[in-house]
Amino acid sequence: xxxxxxxxxxTSGFGEATARAxxxxxxxxxLLGRRxxxxxxxxxxxxxxxxxxxxxxxxxxxxxxxxxxxxNFKDIEILVNxxxxxxxxxxxxxxxxxxxxxxxDTNIKGLLYVTKAVLPIMTARKSGYIxxxxxxxxxxxYPGGNVYGGTKAFVKQFTFNLRNDLQGTGIxxxxxxxxxxxxxxxxxxxxxxxxxxxxxxxxxxxxxxEDIARIIVDCINLPKHVNINSLxxxxxxxxxxxxxxxxx
Length: 248
Known about the structure:
By secondary structure, the chain is α/β, with parallel strands linked by helices. It has one domain (4-233): NAD(P)-binding Rossmann-like Domain (Rossmann fold). The chain contains 8 helices and 7 strands; from the N terminus they run E-H-E-H-E-H-E-H-E-H-E-H-H-H-E. The chain has a 7-stranded parallel β-sheet with strand order 3-2-1-4-5-6-7, with helices on both faces. Strand 1 (4-8), helix 1 (13-24) and strand 2 form a beta-alpha-beta unit. Helix 1 packs across helix 8 (209-220) and helix 4 packs parallel to helix 5. The longest helix has 29 residues, at 97-125.
């Protein structure tokens, strides 16, 4: 049995697929998510799993749960900061400030809480790998991307600066920035509007959760002296939108 992998947002999408992939690789798992029923089902299926049913925005609970981990799950070697969301795609003037705050609290502050809680474990062991899930939205602008894109740009820059801070510790840090991928992402973004969510993926090939999980495993299995700083991943069908022009 290998050491422990801690995955946030583990109840669906990239998080669930990564949990399955790392379980096959022989890792014990700490799975964090809001939907306890899903966590329990996944833990029952995979075994060797400790679950944390929590909202990643709950700073006190995150730190308390990490502090009180069972002894056999304290050897955290892998942290996959996957939890995140987009809400709405309105222009800034029309968008909800509450949606903006939820994205900031989840995608930025939640990621920071888990990272800060886990880092002392890794630095004490002088070993570890932190993988932060960014997005092409943090690399390239698109209409309605506003605050979501801003939060993912934070993930990229924080990843780079964290690498600087951790020089000499043996801890690797990578940002993975996916493009179009069919998960529950669009269903959440459009607040349960399945037709609107499905239209995002209509008649095109997209990345799957299993594709991203495979990339994460491949990064982890590289020699420890190799660090992938940032990896931007698009479906072959997706390219940059190009310049927009206002015309009379």
